[in-house]
Amino acid sequence: QLQLVESGGGLVQSGGSLRLSCVASGFNLDDYVVAWFRQAPGGEREGVSCTEKRSESTSYWIPVRGRATVSRDSAKNTVYLQMTNLVPEDTAVYYCAAERGTCPLIQYDFWGQGTQVTVSS
To answer: Which of 20, 27, 30, 93 is 20 to 30 A away from residue 77, measured at CA?
Structure first.
């Protein structure tokens, strides 16, 4: 079964940090572009980052630039999103997605179920 599973979300105070994980099963995540998205309550889904396959070369969307870092752990078939200096506006459900190709991509075939991040002021 091909799937992505996110974890690592939670409640954090403003200024705090979180590391989100995206674990793949059934396929080699290194062979895929991995993107992070988020969707705030009542809002539209927006991009967070896009990481090239077999690389940690990442493009970051402006709202998180300078506060987000993506890394890969090939042995664990996992991609991480480290977020620092969190603000209440970062509150959202965070999703990872994977697809073949190069960043940025419009459509992704594989999506995780999402992990909730809540930042209190």
So the answer is: 93
